[in-house]
Amino acid sequence: MSWAGRAWAYCDAMRVLAGLDGALLDPEAPLLRADDLAATRGDGVFETVLVVDGKPRELGPHLDRLARSAAMLDLPAPDPSAWERCVKAVISAWRGGREMALKLVYTRGPEFGDGTPTAYGMGLPIGAGALRARVEGVSALTLERGFAPEHAGRSPWLLLGAKTLSYAVNMAALRYAERQGADEVVFLASDGSVLEGPTSTVVVANGRTLRTPPPSIGILPGTTQGALFRAAERAGWTTKVERLRPDDIRGADGLFLVSSVRKVTFVHTLDGTPLPNLEPRRALHAELSDLYESEYRT
Amino acid sequence: MSWAGRAWAYCDAMRVLAGLDGALLDPEAPLLRADDLAATRGDGVFETVLVVDGKPRELGPHLDRLARSAAMLDLPAPDPSAWERCVKAVISAWRGGREMALKLVYTRGPEFGDGTPTAYGMGLPIGAGALRARVEGVSALTLERGFAPEHAGRSPWLLLGAKTLSYAVNMAALRYAERQGADEVVFLASDGSVLEGPTSTVVVANGRTLRTPPPSIGILPGTTQGALFRAAERAGWTTKVERLRPDDIRGADGLFLVSSVRKVTFVHTLDGTPLPNLEPRRALHAELSDLYESEYRT
């Protein structure tokens, strides 16, 4: 059986892999050399795009952010049309569920190569944990991230705000949270400023106002947060991009972790303490989820 | 021509690759899957061992540190005998120069795999820059690393002191230094404590005393620094592992960046200013280099 047939046969674990030329590749076969700087140095950038019913969400903002991350790492500027071709190829070959997480990976390439970066797109199923979290909400732990907001402006080598492949700390923070019985993490800066989740953006709601921390303190501008804010503004909400303190997330009417894969997920428990007013929180979550989805209704 | 023949034919770019079973692999062929967590998350650990005339230096301390790094990342404990077999295979197949940098890479493996980690050893030539730096010394820039020494103890998710594959910041700091006309970087903690280089340990000499900062502030314990201190103690030097301030490295008789590949390299220029007493520094460098080499004379 061909690998395409194999992938089709195991739909739950379906993966689709394509290069920038749009050619499909066997996801079970090795792709990267042992000296690829992604593997030996975490030296590259990525994006994860949500695809629903064959339509990529926020592809433009994702490719823009990929380009900004690449620039921060001194990687050659990615070619948007090549990435779009790759995205199209993965989506066309997808035979999994209605939703797919499409990971775009762009690395500095082999250390002992000709200098050509490595680039590929990989279509993956949405994890069971993310699907459950969208419905049930999550418990989160605040953890120190270990830098001051001022570093983002003055220490470009720290790559704050670049979505790099060096995510070992983000993954370790999630494992740490899990050991403490929590699902998620909210990172805090050394001065207590609320930053972001390891793979998500923090959003709080108070009345008809949504707030999220500013990228200038060393975090990623969220593509899903951007879409949510756009939709909320159209529906008459006020949106603010401003610094948040731990009290702001504890005292908000609603606390959310948003990302492509988890969409708008609400936090029901913070640092081991259930947040008050669960039912109004659920209602708020339903309202914001609906607003977010309204961006993609035709 | 077989790939082994190709490797032999291009000795300057020679690379030897082996798996943990000791089987040789084609270094030009892809090894890692697109979903290997090394490539997508920098999720793994590594070591670089110097091999001279077929003998690996400090292999025990390197494998010990690999095991400690792996534990910090919740990776399965590496099997030392398997790694020794891999090291032996790479060394036996090496047809390059007298010296080889042997990189040991241990990753969490494919995200959509059976949970088996990816592990390999890769023999590489010593880079021209490192060879030159050993002789001529280097200029270095102090750069903020963005965390406080206290984080090492209280924030295990930051993986401070683990040698992870998430080295994008370390590489970005070196590129930043290069743009400022410097060869190397000395990282400082947020309180000004001297930490380490992106791929090296900081050592200072004053009189007959060598000092290096303590791993407890969130840095790697240096294998080459350990060997140098061992040799120095035997020769009657005093060695201290204690915190250093920027003034300590500026005012020392000698400032060194030590690592497996660069051995003992002296710093002649710090933050754009030539350090005083160049000739005594060179003499000190020659003496410490000789001490270090004495560890491996039979």
From TrEMBL, chains A, B:
Record-level Gene Ontology MF annotations: lyase activity
Key words, A-Z: Lyase
GO CC annotations on file: cytosol
Source organism, top-level taxon: Bacteria
Gene3D superfamilies in the cross-refs: 3.30.470.10, D-amino Acid Aminotransferase, subunit A, domain 2 (3.20.10.10)
GO biological process, one term: carboxylic acid biosynthetic process
InterPro entries linked to this entry: Aminotrans_IV, Aminotransferase-like, BCAT-like_C, BCAT-like_N, Class-IV_PLP-Dep_Aminotrnsfr
Family under the similarity heading: Belongs to the class-IV pyridoxal-phosphate-dependent aminotransferase family.
Protein name according to UniProt: 4-amino-4-deoxychorismate lyase
Organism of provenance: Longimycelium tulufanense
Gene name of the record: pabC
